Structure formats: structure tokens, C-alpha cells
């Protein structure tokens, strides 16, 4: 472990999209704050005064209401969850290596991170205002103004069933400190097990509806398209829960190491309601596998860190990792099987290449 | 559709294990009763008189109780669910083609089927007897006596959380008729989304516990093992929910068809809490895919039937199908990636080979 500042790879500045190197994520139950990825949709970050901020809750509810931050804190019990967030575009670079994805951000392995989030349950707020019969979805709108949103705010939705799940938080705290502005202060949504795009930052409005959001980021983007389709409203399948995924975090890709015993570590994330039950590591491209040691989870909704020790010969070795979820679902081998026109959810087997030099025993 | 009797492939007679040809499953929301697979663990089928049958409910409960069939019917509301059951060994033959699995039943595509089940919710029964704090699992024991059970009955368990889910039934009816003896009469468990082995037939005892069953079929069998491991108590991962799977059901494998438009149909099953969101069909080994048409589901827990029309050239075409679940999870390509020492959960891409003869246009 070092205490050097983490240097992020900045993919764009407006909107600000940046990720840490994989090594900055390695072996941390909770991702250091300066290594937490930034995924923005609007060119400018909203500036919100927490003292005047309010949350409007309306739509198909019996008692529409507006809550100040103080009212949320007084009215509802605070809950804490350790949750891994993961951008739907994480590992997109692996899909771009199969075929180009013009205009899409070439995320590497770092568009994921884990934090301890605290705030109130969305379910408690919804119960307070009373959801009307016939409601099916909850639209979440932020204060940020993406260009694709036609002047409106960033807006997506989650099914009511998930919105009422106890793990979904309106969070004002990240790792026991006030939520930073860059991560959505004063209040953001945290939707465990689902693509990061549903965890709306700078939350301003919660609207109960009888159908999913018609906004760009629900109806056009963040959808799984067949390889030969182009994005259009309602086309493809909306991404919600994420599929089982894993990555090697240390050593870094293309690292120089000494031949002999080398500790390899990473994370796995089951997605949705599932858990990680096994992680396999291979040095022969998947012909044979060993099982990595799984570390205890920091929380039900956090990633599972893993590690193993490989005995590397001098020369170049490609290390492969894959995870299994609690339904015996396993990552597919090849990103070519998964390539899709928006480049989402690359959960193909993970690889790093290690260069081992013979040890100087003289 | 024909009304010819279905000829089952009998893998063994004691225990009786038999499956229909895939064509007998094709295009039926509900599997015809004579095409429903038989998976038994004991050499002899129990003979139970429904008039004297009782269900004992005990363990970590406040009020242990014994229910007759009449008492179950009177005390609790009847519920109906259309549910697809699938043996964990379904499609094992595809794994055996990778490497032999001595002593295991070579199930083809037919160890799955869908029925309308009616009975009472296990949750209602558990609430009636009062589950004690600290309970975590529910052990389900049948009247059948497998040789591996050391004189005891067939016994497995499900986590309490699943046992309390509204979809889990103690069923006495199959397709609006009394449950047949061969399928577990008078009462069997139906655990939607999970491997068939948890849907205990000839149910006699429900025991609430603070840990999973120690019985052979929970602690040794029905576990996912690494390729180089051998079965032993507690080794590997218990199989519960099943991973996304699909198969081509018609035309049959190696069928002779006329060149030109050919209707291809099959099923897909997401497993666990997930749903099927897309089915892809390929005639070039997965290089390119078309999307099949998905039919309405007969129920939340039933398979999703699909069909498409292929324009087949004269000669041999290998048709491939794969399904995606609602978390963007997709079937892996190659059964070699999945091979495991007990041969469970082969959810690799499905294939049939079709032989098309040129049409006689003279």
C-alpha cells in the first residue's frame, strides 16, 4: 500500500468522466475516495446549497410532499449500506477491442468502486407519502442537465418493487463523511446491485408513475441492443440489475514482476440479488482453473475481494479470472459474444498480462 | 401437433428416470402430462394413502403441528402458479461430450417441463406454526428412500427466505387434476426458479432449522464442484436458483426438412428471480444473431417460449440459440467452460443440426 495520490485517467472534462488505475482499487474493502470513479452526464456539475435544497415527492402518491434535508433527517431513521457501484460502461474498452464504438467513453476496469453509504430508505419516504394503487415505477430526477435531455434534468426510473427494497437509499453520507459534491451532494440515490446510472446524483425529485421514465437515459441509452441495431426510443432492453463480473486488480496489466510466487488479487460482483460463490483463476487461457480465496464481504451489497498466489515462470503469462454467481451463472469467455452498439455490461473473462523476470539468485 | 403417445427415453428403471424427446415439449405453454420428465432418487416409488397421509411441521417453530390433507385444504387458501421445473442435470449429455461423467444419468434436453400447480403456500403453513427467531433454513423430507440416504428419506433444504416467498407451494394439483403419484402425490413442494431437486415429492415433513440439510442430496450431491474436485460433504457450492438457459425444441436435432422457410422454436428460462429478455438464434455458429419472437409467458415462473423463421439453404445447417436474462446475463458459449464432476447446470449455447433437402419445384 502506498499513500501517493491516485492519478485518474480523465476520459472527458465536460462532462467529467474519470477512472482510477486498477491498482488503486486493489485490496480495499472501501475504495479510497480519491480513487472513486466519476461518471457525469451533464457538462456542468450542479451547485446546490444544502440549506435551501428540497426533495419533491409526487406523482401517484396520496400526500405529495417536499422535504428539506433537515426534514429527511428528522422524519426518517438513518440506515447504512456498504455498496459497490458499477457503471454499465465499465470495461467497455474490451468491447472496443472487438469493434469500434464511436462516441462512447472507453472505460477500462476502473468504473466501479465501493463505499459505505448512509441516508434514509427510499421505501420509508414512499411509505410516508403513500403510494397509490396501480403505480409500477419510481422516476428519479437529479439537478444535472445533460445535453441529451432536451433542457430537462438527468432522469431515470426503477421499478416500484426495487424502490421499496430496504437496500435502496437516499444517501447524504459516503464513508462516514458528508457526501461530496462530486458524488451527488446533498443527496443521491444508491441502488445496490443495479447499474450505476440508476443511482441518481443531486437528487431533486421522486415521482411515482405507472410506467418507466421516458427520458433519454432510460428510453434510449442504458439499453442492451442487438449487435446490428442502432439506439432509438424503446429499442432494446433496459439495463437494470448487472450480470456477474470480476476483474484482476493487482498486479496491474503489463506489470513487471519477479518470477516465482506472485500474489494476484481482484474483485467479483454478482449483481442483482445474487452473491459471488466462486472465483477461478487460470494461467492457461481457461483450460484449467484454480479457485481463488474469497475474502469476507464488507456488506451484502459490496463486491467480494479475492486473491491467490501464482507460481510464475520467467517470461510472459496471461492471467485470466472469472466469477460464478449463486445461480451457477458464470461469466462468458469472449467479449465478442457480448459486443453491443452502446458497449454495455462487458462481463467477459478478465485478463492481465504479467512479465516475470528470472530472479537473480547469484 | 399430433396426438400420438409420447415415447420417453428411459435412462433407468430403479430409480425411474425418463425424459421426452425435445419435440414433445415444443410450443406447449403447459407440458403434456405424458411428456413430463421423471426424476427419481429411490428405487421404489412410495405408495401413500391420501386418506391417512399427514404432514409434520416441526423444528424451530412455536407450535409444531401435523396436518392431514383435509386440514391443509380447510386451513389455508389455495394458490395456483404456472411453474417450469428443470432438473439440475438437464442437458448433461452436452457435458459428457466434453469429458465422461461415469455413473451420472445422460440427460438430454427433456429434463424440464411446465405445469400449472395448485396447493397452499409453504409460507402460510410456516406462519401458522410460527417460525422461531434464529431460524435460517427449511428442511423438506419426502417419503422416498434413496440408497444414498442411509436408510433415511430424500431430504433437502431451502433458505427460510425462499421458503417464505409467495411462489413456493405445497401442491396437490397438476394441470387442474389431482397430482399424479409419479409426480409426488398426495403433496409435493414446488420451488419456482430453483433446481428441480428442491421441489420434494411425496412430502411428509417440513422442519425449520438453523442451517441447511446435512442429507446426501444437499451436502454432497447437487453441488457445483471445480473440475478437479471430487464430491465430499460440504465441498463445492450448493445449487439453488438456476442460471439462464434455453434450448431449441423443434425441429428435432438431425431432422430432415425442406430447404426454404423453416419455423424453429424453443424455450428459455431465466432462473431465480430473473426474467428472459431476449433470445438470439444463429446459423453461423454465433458470428451473427437474429432475435427470436418471444411469446407471452403463461406465468411469472414459467419458461418463455420463442420462435423464429429461418430461410435454410439445401444442405446441413447448425442452428444455435442463446438467451439473455434481465440482468444482461447470457449463456456461455461452450460446455467445456462449464464442465463439472457431477455434470450440473449445462447452460451453454443450444444447438440442433438440420438437414435441408432442395425442394422439388418440378
TrEMBL record, chains A, B:
UniProt-listed CDD domains: SO_family_Moco_dimer
Q: Which domain of life does the protein's organism represent?
A: Bacteria
Would the keyword Methyltransferase be found if you checked this record's keyword annotation? no
Q: Where is this region: Disordered?
A: 1-22
Q: Which UniProt key words apply to this protein?
A: Metal-binding, Molybdenum, Oxidoreductase
Domain Moybdenum cofactor oxidoreductase dimerisation intervals: 244-355
Cofactors required: Mo-molybdopterin
- The UniProt regions of compositional bias labelled Polar residues, in chain numbering, are 1-16
Q: Does the keyword Ribosomal protein apply?
A: no
Domain named Oxidoreductase molybdopterin-binding: which ranges? 45-216
InterPro entries listed in its UniProt record: Ig_E-set (IPR014756), MoCF_OxRdtse_dimer (IPR005066), Mopterin_OxRdtase_euk (IPR008335), OxRdtase_Mopterin-bd_dom (IPR000572), OxRdtase_Mopterin-bd_sf (IPR036374)
Q: Which Pfam families match?
A: Mo-co_dimer, Oxidored_molyb
Output this protein's name.
Sulfite oxidase
Naturally occurring in which organism (per UniProt): Actinomycetospora lemnae
